[in-house]
Each structure stands twice: as C-alpha cells, then as structure tokens.
Write a structure and sequence with these properties.
Layout lengths: L7 H6 L3 E5 L2 E7 L2 E10 L2 E10 L4 H16 L4 H19 L3 H12 L14 H11 L9 H8 L7 H20 L7 H10 L17 H7 L5 H12 L3 H5 L6 E2 L2 E4 L14 E4 L2 H12 L17 H11 L7 H13 L4 H7 L7 H6 L5 H16 L13
Antiparallel strand pairs: 1-2, 2-3, 3-4, 5-6, 6-7
Length: 399
C-alpha cells in the first residue's frame, strides 16, 4: 500500500473513511469533525489506535504519529500497550513531583502508620479525610490547592461537627507539611489561612453520659443474667477498664488475682501504651468464675462471632437498665464516688483509671502503679457496688 495518498483538500472536503496508507485513516463524522486512526496487526491480532481528533490533529501530525508507532511495532511491541505504559510512567512522575491530595494523604498515612495503633488499621486517622477532604479536593494537585478549597471542604461542618472538622484540618496540615518536606511544591501555610477564613467556633464539650454513683448498686443488681453482655458489664463496673480492653478480656490474662490488660488494647499511641495491671476484687473474680462455667473459647465474654462481644451489644443492654448512661460513663461514676467519699488520694484514683499521673520527668522516677493500694480501693468500690460489708483495710490507708 502506497503511503501518503491523502491530500489536504480531500481531508477537508471528504466524508466517511479516508485512507492515507500504511494503516492510517481518517474517520469523518461530518465535514468539520473526525478521528484519526492507526490500524495495525500485532501477533496476528488487528488493532486500531486513536491518534486524535480532526481538525485539531492535522494530516501531517497524524502521519508523524503513525510513523512513530510503526517503529515501535517493528521493534516487536504493541503500540497501544507501549503508549499506555508511557502514559502511566508520565502520570507516576507527575504524581511524584506534584501528587493529588488523595495521593499525598495516602503517602503521608503510610509514613505515619507505624506510629499509630494497630498500624493505623482501625482507620481513624484517615476517616475525617476520607469523609470530607478527599471527596472535595482529592483529585486536585497539591500545587494547585488554595485556602479557599480547604475552606469550601470544611465550611459545612466547621460548626455543626467541629471536633471532626478540627481533626480533618489538623491532618490536612500534616499532609501539606509532609509533602513540602518531601520536595513537593505546596504551601502548608494555606491550611492556617483556611482556618482563619473558617472563623472562631464556640464549641461546648459534651461530657460522656454517666449514671450517678449512688445508682450503681441498682444497675449492678439488674445485671443478673448469666450471659456475655450482663457479665461483661459487671466486669466493666468492677474493673473500670475501657471498652476495648474489657470486651477483649481473655482467661489467660488473669494470674493470681490480677488481670493484665495487654498494651494493644490500652489507650495511647504506639510507644506510649503499656500493659496495665488490674487488681481483681472478690466480686470481679466471681464474674471470672461464672464466665468459666460457659467457656467456649479463650475470650471471657464471647460474641456472636469469633472474638469478644461487640460494644453495640454491651451498650444495648445498659440502655435498657440505665437509659442515658454508657459503659465508659462507669469510670466517671467511680471517680465521682472517690471524690465524694474521699476513698483514695488523687494518684491512686487516677492510676485505677489508667490515667497518666505527673509529668514526663516525674514519671521517669516515680514508677509505682500502686497495685496493692489499688487492690484495697477496688475491693472497697466492689463492696459498695454489691452492698457487701467491707472486710478490707480502712479507706484512710489509701491516702
């Protein structure tokens, strides 16, 4: 087939398929529009490769493209596969120099996740970004973002869902800083400019709902069923451990009347969380014994599936018995009981809740976890909860 059969005038006035030769033809849709196509065979398979629209792409340019890809074909490679690879390489290079916000967010998360609990698999770090930032600006290049873009993404929730919006803007700032230090042309200061545009917020912190400590004995008595949910809530009241630690309790974590909650289920960042020893009162050990009676796995409080009971199942039971209270609120009930009854000094009471006491330097020297003193406190709390007569050391010994 001879090359270069078409004339410029034919291209302009012709209609239908206009063949130029060596696989190049123009598919005219009308006098004023069309599409250049390179038809070739690779490994016995016919393929058609678009070279661009007419008249944007001229006859001369289409021929150059045809000739370029013909060289690739003669080298034994499929031109369409080669083109796709080159486009992907170009995209990756662009993304490296100037990633989209979504790419930058994922890169930053990958760099940070080793310092997050469970390697960030819980998804909490990325959650506000996936909900509000990525849908709004995820496909924009970092260098193209303006403070007005960040403002527009967060303005709808800045006041109505301020804690979430605050997390989103803090993490957006982290992303901009990480990308800037990685050599990407972006300005972290635009995040602060967006914050200024969003304005001040008068946010009232809503405290965790908690039952009055005087009502805890009634709630404890109402949890009288011998099942996971009721026994888990009793254990919650008697140990004051946070939900994740409590619901995942295992029989092999209890030795000699002490429950050691592994650091993986304790609150805190990687490196700061530590195993936490909980002295078990007599009623708490009774819960363990009752759980042993219907033991079917290593979990003390098994759920419907493999693993521990869900937070939903536990909260549902408590709502029926004490509307308006929460499992986490039991910690507040206990702490208020300590305050109102002068049951223990500050350090012992705060340590019982696994709160950090003192500054970093102080903690480097004062390393006691007050286990023996907490054993007395937890037994006194259990005696109050169950209505038992205290047989332990007087409360003044805790001070």
């Amino acid at each position: 087939m001879a090359r270069n059969k078409l004339k410029v005038l034919e291209v302009k006035k012709g209609d239908g398929k206009l063949f130029d030769g060596a696989g190049l033809y123009l598919q005219k849709r009308s006098i004023e529009s069309g599409r250049w196509v390179y038809r070739y065979k690779h490994q016995g398979r016919s393929r058609e490769m678009g070279l661009g629209p007419f008249p944007t792409v001229s006859l001369a340019y289409a021929r150059k493209e045809r000739d370029r890809w013909e060289i690739v074909l003669k080298a034994g490679e499929d031109p369409m596969v080669a083109r796709d690879r080159k486009r992907e390489e170009a995209r990756l290079e662009t993304s490296k120099r100037d990633p989209t916000f979504e790419e930058a967010a994922n890169t930053t998360f990958d760099a940070k996740k080793a310092g997050l609990r469970d390697d960030g698999n819980s998804g909490r770090w990325m959650s506000p970004l996936r909900l509000y930032m990525i849908p709004a600006i995820g496909q924009r290049r970092m260098s193209q973002l303006h403070q007005s873009d960040i403002h527009a993404a967060l303005a709808p929730i800045w006041r109505s869902k301020h804690p979430t919006a605050e997390k989103a803007i803090q993490r957006t700032k982290i992303i901009f800083e990480h990308m800037r230090f990685s050599g990407v042309e972006c300005d972290p200061f635009i995040v602060e400019m967006a914050r200024h545009m969003l304005g001040e917020v008068r946010h009232e912190v809503i405290k965790t709902p908690a039952a009055d400590w005087q009502d805890i004995p009634r709630i404890f008595r109402a949890l009288d069923r011998n099942d996971s949910s009721h026994m888990c809530l009793r254990f919650n009241i008697l140990t004051l451990v946070r939900s994740a630690g409590m619901r995942g309790a295992r029989f092999d974590e209890i030795q000699d009347g002490v429950w050691t909650v592994p650091k993986e289920r304790m609150k805190g960042t990687v490196g700061s969380a530590a195993d936490f020893r909980v002295p078990l009162s007599d009623p708490a050990l009774e819960v363990v014994a009752r759980a042993e009676e219907w033991r079917r796995s290593s979990n003390m409080f098994p759920g419907g599936r493999v693993g521990g009971i869900s937070d939903v199942a536990v909260a549902k039971v408590l709502r029926k018995i004490a509307p308006g209270s929460t499992p986490h609120g039991m910690r507040t009930s206990f702490r208020t009981w300590v305050q109102d009854t002068d049951a223990a000094n500050y350090d012992v009471a705060e340590t019982a809740l696994a709160h950090i006491v003192g500054g970093k330097v102080e903690r480097a020297y004062a390393r006691s976890d007050f286990l023996d003193r907490r054993r007395i406190l937890m037994q006194s709390w259990a005696d109050f909860v169950t209505g038992a007569v205290s047989k332990v050391v007087p409360l003044r010994m805790l001070r």
